[in-house]
Prior knowledge:
By secondary structure, the chain is of the alpha+beta class. 34% of the residues lie in helices and 28% in strands. The longest helix has 15 residues, at 88-102. The chain starts with a strand and ends in a 14-residue tail after the last helix. The model has no long low-confidence stretch (mean pLDDT 92).
Amino acid sequence: MSIKLAESDLQILGCFPVISQLRPHLQQDNFVEQVRYQMKEGYQLAFLEIEKQAVAIAGFRISNCLASGKFLYIDDLVVDELKRSHSYGQQLFQWLIEYARNHECKHLSLDSGVQRFAAHRFYLMQRMSITSHHFSIEL
Protein backbone atom coordinates (compact mmCIF):
# COMPACT_ATOMS: atom_id res chain seq x y z
CA MET A 1 0.00 0.00 0.00
CA SER A 2 1.23 3.48 -0.84
CA ILE A 3 -0.21 6.98 -1.15
CA LYS A 4 1.02 9.10 -4.04
CA LEU A 5 0.20 12.27 -5.90
CA ALA A 6 -0.98 11.58 -9.45
CA GLU A 7 1.55 13.18 -11.78
CA SER A 8 1.44 11.25 -15.03
CA ASP A 9 -1.56 11.00 -17.34
CA LEU A 10 -1.61 7.25 -16.64
CA GLN A 11 -1.81 7.83 -12.88
CA ILE A 12 -4.58 10.41 -13.35
CA LEU A 13 -6.53 8.05 -15.60
CA GLY A 14 -6.03 5.26 -13.04
CA CYS A 15 -8.03 7.36 -10.56
CA PHE A 16 -11.05 7.60 -12.85
CA PRO A 17 -12.82 4.30 -11.95
CA VAL A 18 -12.95 5.29 -8.29
CA ILE A 19 -13.59 9.03 -8.56
CA SER A 20 -16.41 8.40 -11.05
CA GLN A 21 -18.25 6.59 -8.23
CA LEU A 22 -18.45 9.95 -6.46
CA ARG A 23 -18.77 12.04 -9.62
CA PRO A 24 -20.79 9.89 -12.07
CA HIS A 25 -21.24 12.80 -14.50
CA LEU A 26 -17.52 12.68 -15.40
CA GLN A 27 -16.50 11.20 -18.75
CA GLN A 28 -13.37 9.07 -19.02
CA ASP A 29 -12.44 10.44 -22.45
CA ASN A 30 -11.82 13.97 -21.12
CA PHE A 31 -10.99 13.20 -17.49
CA VAL A 32 -7.22 13.69 -17.82
CA GLU A 33 -7.75 16.98 -19.68
CA GLN A 34 -10.15 18.22 -16.97
CA VAL A 35 -7.76 17.27 -14.15
CA ARG A 36 -4.80 18.87 -15.95
CA TYR A 37 -6.83 22.08 -16.35
CA GLN A 38 -7.67 22.11 -12.64
CA MET A 39 -4.04 21.38 -11.77
CA LYS A 40 -3.14 24.73 -13.32
CA GLU A 41 -5.32 26.22 -10.57
CA GLY A 42 -3.65 24.20 -7.78
CA TYR A 43 -5.77 21.04 -7.78
CA GLN A 44 -3.99 17.79 -6.93
CA LEU A 45 -5.04 14.15 -6.91
CA ALA A 46 -3.76 11.84 -4.21
CA PHE A 47 -4.44 8.13 -4.44
CA LEU A 48 -4.00 5.15 -2.18
CA GLU A 49 -2.77 2.26 -4.26
CA ILE A 50 -2.96 -1.45 -3.51
CA GLU A 51 -1.36 -3.91 -5.91
CA LYS A 52 -1.00 -1.15 -8.54
CA GLN A 53 -4.68 -0.21 -8.36
CA ALA A 54 -6.10 3.02 -6.93
CA VAL A 55 -8.66 2.22 -4.23
CA ALA A 56 -9.07 5.63 -2.54
CA ILE A 57 -8.85 9.06 -4.16
CA ALA A 58 -8.64 12.60 -2.82
CA GLY A 59 -8.79 15.68 -4.99
CA PHE A 60 -7.65 18.76 -3.10
CA ARG A 61 -6.09 22.21 -3.26
CA ILE A 62 -4.26 24.55 -0.94
CA SER A 63 -5.56 28.09 -0.77
CA ASN A 64 -5.78 31.19 1.40
CA CYS A 65 -8.71 33.26 2.56
CA LEU A 66 -9.35 36.02 5.06
CA ALA A 67 -11.60 33.83 7.21
CA SER A 68 -9.24 30.86 7.61
CA GLY A 69 -5.78 31.84 6.48
CA LYS A 70 -3.94 29.08 4.62
CA PHE A 71 -6.00 25.89 4.32
CA LEU A 72 -6.26 22.60 2.48
CA TYR A 73 -9.65 22.12 0.84
CA ILE A 74 -10.79 18.63 -0.15
CA ASP A 75 -12.84 18.75 -3.35
CA ASP A 76 -13.25 14.99 -3.74
CA LEU A 77 -12.76 12.10 -1.31
CA VAL A 78 -13.91 8.59 -2.17
CA VAL A 79 -13.02 4.97 -1.54
CA ASP A 80 -13.91 2.29 -4.09
CA GLU A 81 -17.31 0.97 -3.01
CA LEU A 82 -15.97 -2.62 -3.15
CA LYS A 83 -13.02 -1.74 -0.89
CA ARG A 84 -14.75 0.21 1.88
CA SER A 85 -14.41 -0.65 5.59
CA HIS A 86 -10.71 -1.49 5.28
CA SER A 87 -9.50 1.85 6.74
CA TYR A 88 -8.32 3.10 3.32
CA GLY A 89 -10.36 6.29 3.68
CA GLN A 90 -8.98 6.93 7.14
CA GLN A 91 -5.41 6.35 5.95
CA LEU A 92 -5.86 8.75 3.04
CA PHE A 93 -7.54 11.31 5.30
CA GLN A 94 -4.66 11.15 7.77
CA TRP A 95 -2.22 11.57 4.87
CA LEU A 96 -4.12 14.72 3.84
CA ILE A 97 -3.88 16.11 7.38
CA GLU A 98 -0.14 15.49 7.42
CA TYR A 99 0.23 17.03 3.96
CA ALA A 100 -1.65 20.12 5.14
CA ARG A 101 0.55 20.42 8.23
CA ASN A 102 3.70 20.01 6.14
CA HIS A 103 2.50 22.86 3.93
CA GLU A 104 1.79 25.14 6.91
CA CYS A 105 -1.98 25.06 6.54
CA LYS A 106 -4.04 26.21 9.51
CA HIS A 107 -7.19 24.30 8.54
CA LEU A 108 -8.45 21.39 6.49
CA SER A 109 -12.00 21.61 5.21
CA LEU A 110 -14.51 20.12 2.78
CA ASP A 111 -18.15 20.32 1.80
CA SER A 112 -20.36 17.24 1.79
CA GLY A 113 -23.77 16.78 0.23
CA VAL A 114 -26.56 16.81 2.80
CA GLN A 115 -27.69 13.33 1.69
CA ARG A 116 -24.28 11.66 2.29
CA PHE A 117 -24.94 10.33 5.81
CA ALA A 118 -22.21 7.66 5.75
CA ALA A 119 -19.66 10.28 4.71
CA HIS A 120 -20.82 12.57 7.53
CA ARG A 121 -20.32 9.76 10.07
CA PHE A 122 -16.82 9.23 8.69
CA TYR A 123 -15.93 12.95 8.94
CA LEU A 124 -17.25 13.18 12.49
CA MET A 125 -15.23 10.08 13.43
CA GLN A 126 -12.17 11.90 12.06
CA ARG A 127 -12.91 14.66 14.62
CA MET A 128 -14.10 17.17 12.03
CA SER A 129 -16.63 19.78 13.13
CA ILE A 130 -19.62 21.09 11.24
CA THR A 131 -18.68 24.76 11.10
CA SER A 132 -20.90 26.32 8.44
CA HIS A 133 -23.65 25.89 5.89
CA HIS A 134 -22.80 26.00 2.20
CA PHE A 135 -25.24 27.84 -0.04
CA SER A 136 -25.32 27.80 -3.84
CA ILE A 137 -27.44 28.83 -6.80
CA GLU A 138 -27.55 27.44 -10.33
CA LEU A 139 -26.58 30.02 -12.94
